[in-house]
Specification:
single chain, about 625 residues, mainly alpha, 36 helices, about 70% helix, disordered N terminus
């Protein structure tokens, strides 16, 4: 009686590399049986070297032309973190690829976070296989996941959604859950909620997805309401659900709510295998200002991995306890737990908070010595900021120039530092260099550069940046505010006013920028009129609004001393709003003192000056910048 194929599979599973012992038997088996017998070999490949050896054996025996082992090779290489080899196997497969192989290579790209590659492969599959090969429904979750992680590809996700409907797969709960995540990332809560409400069956994953959509889009109370609805419907939450709630409590900073959510986790005995839930609770308590509870959770954790140590170090930083953060890192070293890039980023923040140059240099040496992020991909920007905070701008610039493949974050960091240091011409030239290097600026870099142009009164350069904003379509609220501010500071209040008028639902910052622009350019009456309009509309006002109006009243008093009494009601209202806002700012006292003096009310003016002096405050010296040549 011949050997049984089942027995041979067991033998191969126990002795995965005894290939020669079974070659004669394999050759006597039909091809399909051969493929089945090779599966244990793939499971035994735990290293890249062993998988490469198996790949070589398949090439020698000619079995690589079969879709099954080639597909398994693609998957195995990706699982070992070698997407390049996965792509090579896929691209060199001699025959037409089936839907299953397309699905595996797309999924492999998503595993490896190569989302753009996954989307590009999907488009290729559609053009090469549409109409000839039936597209498997298992491909769509991977493609939708890739689209969710690429903000520039949200439109592709909507196209995929359309195809899902066309193929009649929109009732599939797995695909619907992926669509929920997509619309959540697109900040379309209405779209996500519509999908959720149309689901016939809603499991824990669906509920977790809709809760995350609310939380990720800033509707934290909406996420909590969905959780209450979930529990009332008898659906049990899992660790993923609770992670979303913990994040919501952390962002709200509500201690009582945080305790309540923690109580739910304990009562339901919900744990996460990787400890991520406990780590999130540590961060949550620190954001709620309860470092004692964060410490207690950390020290009660039996297994403290890298993420746990990073959580407590970040928590100490958040509470301003920078030395405790550094001591925790030293304890982490004693425990022989290796730090990652995020840990070292938090440690650099600790050194920066203390202004401890020597400590930060030691961290920098640790990064180089242990080859942690040797190309400064993640730690480049934190190092740039650390050296700048310690007054070592030349070292910041050295790190910047050493970064391989500088991205938008590192460019933004340098531009921001130059702006903070008052080196506005350097900020603008760095922005220009960024454009020459074909790095697409974001709202932050555009707004920062526009602010620098405004402070230097460089109208022409500001207009050129405005043209770039229009060209690339990056006219966010942040950029609109910067444009209004820039044109106002350059003396073109008319252009600033036009931008303000066409702004869609201007925020309090936009209103403040416009009122300030009018006041600074001698249109104080118009500034106060705009404030009145803001008041009549019952729009939210912050402390900046009231300070700007005080300045406008002060300017108006200097020009029209006889009319100042008509607006004293406004000044008193502003004063009431500023009483408990910020008592450490000399500007408020100085402005009020000047206004009372212009009105001849020397008693109140003296009180303001006395209050300023008794608080130990001094008026900052003024400064001006002029452009020569």
């Amino acid at each position: 009686m011949g050997s049984s194929p089942v027995i041979f599979v067991i033998i191969l599973g126990d002795f995965a590399w005894q290939v020669k012992a079974g070659e004669e038997f394999l050759e006597s088996c039909p091809p399909k049986v051969q493929m089945t017998l090779y599966m244990p070999f793939f499971r035994a490949c735990s290293t890249l070297r062993s998988l490469t050896q198996l790949h070589a054996h398949l090439l020698v025996t000619g079995l690589h032309v079969d879709p099954l082992p080639s597909t398994k090779l693609i998957e195995s290489y990706a699982q070992l973190g070698c997407l390049r080899s996965s792509r090579l196997v896929f691209e060199t497969f001699p025959y037409s690829t089936d839907s299953f192989m397309w699905g595996v290579i797309i999924k492999s790209c998503v595993w490896s976070r190569s989302y753009e590659d996954a989307i590009e492969l999907y488009h290729r599959m559609m053009s090469e296989c549409d109409g000839t090969v039936e597209i498997s429904k298992f491909i769509y979750p991977s493609v939708l996941r890739a689209c969710s992680c690429c903000p520039d590809r949200f439109h592709t996700g909507e196209t995929v959604h359309g195809r899902v409907i066309k193929c009649g797969l929109d009732t599939d709960n797995v695909i619907r859950t992926c669509l929920l995540s997509l619309y959540g990332e697109m900040r379309s809560i209405a779209g996500a909620r519509k999908l959720f409400d149309e689901m016939s069956e809603r499991d824990t994953v669906c509920w977790s997805s809709i809760i995350s959509a609310y939380v990720d889009n800033g509707d934290l109370l909406g996420g909590l309401d969905m959780f209450r609805l979930m529990v009332s419907r008898g659906v049990d939450p899992d660790s993923v659900t609770m992670l979303g709630l913990v994040e919501a409590c952390a962002e709200l900073g509500c201690w009582s709510l945080a305790r309540s959510v923690h109580g739910q986790i304990v009562a339901r005995n919900i744990v996460s295998a990787d400890g991520s839930l406990t780590n999130s609770l540590i961060v949550m308590y620190s954001k709620c200002g309860d470092l004692a509870s964060a410490e207690r959770l950390f020290y009660n954790t039996i297994y403290k991995g890298t993420a746990s140590w990073t959580a407590i170090i970040s928590s100490y930083n958040r509470g301003g306890r920078f030395w405790d953060a550094i001591v925790s890192f030293l304890e982490m070293q004693v425990s022989r737990v290796l730090p990652n890039s995020v840990t070292l980023m938090a440690l650099l923040f600790s050194c920066s908070g203390l202004g401890w140059l020597r400590g930060g240099r030691s961290v920098h040496c640790f990064i180089i010595r242990n080859s942690v992020d040797s190309e400064y991909y993640f730690l480049g920007s934190p190092l740039i900021e650390f050296y700048a905070d310690c007054g070592r701008l030349e070292d910041s610039e050295k790190v910047f120039h050493k970064i391989e493949g500088r991205d938008m974050v590192s460019w933004n960091m340098l531009i921001s530092i130059y702006t903070r240091k008052g080196m506005l011409d350097h900020a603008i030239s760095t922005f220009a260099q960024m454009l020459r290097n074909q790095i697409m600026p974001d709202s932050f870099s555009l707004a920062t550069s526009l602010s620098a142009c405004g402070n230097l009164s460089l109208l022409q350069i500001g207009r050129e940046i405005h043209g770039h904003v229009v060209k690339v379509g990056l006219s966010s609220e942040f950029v609109q505010n910067a444009l209004v501010d820039m044109y106002s500071k350059c003396g073109r209040v008319d252009w600033a006013r036009n931008l303000f008028i066409i702004a869609h639902q201007p925020s309090v910052v936009t209103w403040n920028s416009m009122i300030c622009g009018l006041s600074q350019n001698g249109y104080s009456a118009e500034a106060i009129k705009l404030f009145d309009e803001m008041y009549l509309r019952r729009l939210h006002m912050d402390k900046v609004t009231f300070v700007i109006v005080l300045q406008a009243c002060s300017n108006l008093a200097c020009m029209e001393k006889g009319r100042i009494h008509r607006r004293l009601d406004l000044i008193l209202a502003v004063k009431r709003n500023l009483v408990n806002v910020e008592k450490r700012d000399a500007g408020y006292f100085s402005l009020l003192s000047n206004i009372y003096a212009e009105d001849g009310n020397w008693g109140e003016s003296g009180k303001m000056r006395l209050a300023m002096e008794s608080s130990g405050l001094k008026k900052a010296c003024g400064h001006s910048i002029i452009e020569l040549g």
